[in-house]
Design a protein that fits this description.
Blueprint (H helix, E strand, L loop, with lengths): L5 H4 L6 E2 L2 H4 L7 E2 L3 H9 L13 E3 L2 E3 L7 H9 L3 H9 L5 H7 L3 H4 L15 H15 L14 E5 L3 H12 L3 E5 L8 H5 L7 H13 L3 E3 L10 H7 L2 E4 L19 E3 H15 L13 E5 L3 H12 L4 E6 L25 H10 L4 E3 L1 E9 L2 E15 L2 E6 L5 E4 L2 E4 L8 H6 L24 E3 L2 H4 L4 H20 L5
Parallel strand pairs: 5-6, 5-8, 6-7, 8-18, 9-17, 10-11, 10-17, 11-12
Antiparallel strand pairs: 1-2, 3-4, 13-14, 14-15, 14-16
Helix pairs in contact: 3-4, 4-5, 4-8, 5-8, 6-8, 9-18, 13-14, 14-15
Length: 494
């Protein structure tokens, strides 16, 4: 298969980026793409390993490495190298429902397990992430992505509650099986996390609409502004449908536990990002219906992807300064001896928001081993914070987060965005269907199952596994769809 010596002949070449200061002028996607010839060279670097760790999704040292979807990566890299674009798309879509989403927002677990990077230098891995995006966009461009309408319909009706990546994956596979699928979404647009949780510069909302319109053409019904468990009764759903999939995500945000955190100007990151994206798609920000950080000193609590999104969004909207607080220590620049391939590389990553902050303000926005000890208020509004450095110590035999004495520091703040993760699902929908919740506030199921204790009620995605990646939500949605199909038909061929 492929070019046996491609990894020796060609160096890794990533998609390009519009320069940081230029791209912060708008909310458009900012990547530039390689031409056909160069992309085929990148695909030729695939070694066609005897054991392709890239598609393994194995857990090592507490973290998963390799693709959770078990994508046929060597196969479609080979087809891409040969210019067999339709073949590449066919093999990609066999395992991946929405490569146009993962090709934009996935952190590329596959690349971290690529044999080309097994010397510890992950920069030399095959550009699997970029190759995936190229293949699916080529498929849309060529007309390969046409509605695939089931030739035979069953008499089974399934309700999917939530239209994020898990819900869309459940709906996609069950509809392709020939079942009648209706997706309920409480927001005004379909997409869940994809629509309002991820900024437009990472995932243009037209990409979501393109996929949703394709699914509509294939027979999936979508109902928006339908808050099941609130404005839509769970009993009505249970009586009308043969199976129900709960895919409402993990949206219970972790609060800031500090005196003064009730001040005006302290808010959850998800609310901030949602307001900006909604205003952007409704009016290109002209309606003013968003939380505006213009001219403000912004403190972001949390060093993950959501925190980075807050940084990038705040800069685009004219923040006077952005500081991002992270409780954990700064990761090393290179792999350490105790973190060998193919483990997930625990190394420092500088994402787009940090890059933009460095260019605009002259320094990295991230401050490590630091959290907020107190929020200062002036007439009920946030006006500053007291930070403190922290570290983990063993106290009474337990690993405990402790303050470092004398490390307090005051910072100006006009807006605090809490991006400290989530505490599981919002429980009202789960309770409306009578499902049990785990200690992690996720919907309870048996091990290796997506079925709840309530007859014909299933769950998938973050509502089932807790806060995780888009690729895991899609993987769970696909597996849940197969289990629902078996429940309805006695077997499954999806």
């Amino acid at each position: 298969m492929g070019k046996n010596d491609g990894f020796l002949l060609y160096e890794r070449k990533n998609n390009g980026d519009i320069p940081p200061l230029k791209r912060t002028e708008n909310f458009k996607e900012f990547h530039t793409y390689l031409d056909d010839e160069e992309r085929r060279k990148q695909a030729a670097r695939c070694m066609n390993c005897g054991v392709p760790m890239c598609q393994s999704a194995i857990k090592l040292a507490g973290m998963v490495t390799g693709c959770p979807l078990h994508n046929f990566i060597p196969e479609w890299n080979d087809a891409l190298y040969k210019g067999q674009y339709d073949m590449a798309a066919w093999r990609l879509l066999k395992t991946s429902s929405f490569p146009e989403f993962t090709g934009r927002v996935c952190p590329a677990l596959c690349e971290k397990a690529c044999n080309c990077g097994n010397g510890g230098d992950i920069k030399e891995a095959v550009t699997i992430h970029d190759n995936e995006l190229y293949i699916i966009e080529k498929a849309f461009e060529s007309g390969y992505m046409k509605p695939q309408i089931p030739k035979v319909r069953s008499d089974k009706k399934i309700a999917v509650i939530g239209s994020g990546p898990a819900g869309l994956a459940v709906a996609d596979l069950l509809n392709r099986r020939g079942h009648n699928v209706t997706v309920y979404e409480r927001e005004d647009r379909i997409g869940g996390l994809l629509m309002y949780g991820i900024p437009n510069m990472k995932l243009d909302k037209k990409i979501i609409d393109r996929r949703v319109n394709l699914m509509k053409a294939e027979g999936v019904t979508f109902i928006t502004n339908a808050d099941v468990g609130n404005t839509v009764a769970a009993d009505t759903i249970l009586n009308e449908y043969d199976a129900v999939a709960l895919c409402c995500g993990a949206k219970k945000a972790r609060p800031l536990n500090a005196p003064g955190a009730d001040a005006e100007g302290v808010m959850f990151a998800v609310d901030f990002l949602k307001s900006v994206t909604k205003s952007l798609v409704n009016s290109n920000l002209k309606d003013g219906q968003f939380f505006n950080p213009e001219g403000k000193n912004v403190i972001v609590v949390g060093g993950g992807d959501t925190g980075n999104d807050c940084t990038g969004t705040s800069i685009r909207l004219g923040a006077a300064s952005v500081t991002q607080l992270e409780m954990m220590p700064c990761p090393p620049a290179e792999r350490q001896p105790d973190n060998p391939w193919p483990q997930w590389p625990k190394v420092l990553k500088t994402d787009y928001g940090a890059e933009e902050s460095i260019e605009k303000f002259g320094h990295d926005p991230r401050v490590y081993k630091t959290t907020i000890k107190e929020v200062y208020q002036n007439e009920g509004k946030v006006c500053g914070v007291k930070t403190v450095q922290v570290e983990f110590r063993m106290v009474d035999g337990k690993r405990t987060l402790c303050e470092i004495e004398g490390s307090e520091k005051d910072l100006p703040a006009d807006l605090i965005l809490i991006a400290a993760g989530f505490l599981g699902c919002e429980d009202y929908t789960a309770q409306a269907f009578g499902t049990e919740l785990s200690a992690r506030n996720t919907v309870q199921t048996e091990n290796c199952s997506y079925a709840t204790a309530v007859d014909k009620v299933f769950t998938a995605g973050d509502m089932h596994r807790g806060q995780s990646l888009v690729v895991w939500a899609i993987a769970e949605g696909r597996e849940c769809a197969r289990e629902i199909d078996e429940y309805l038909m006695g077997y499954s061929n999806i």
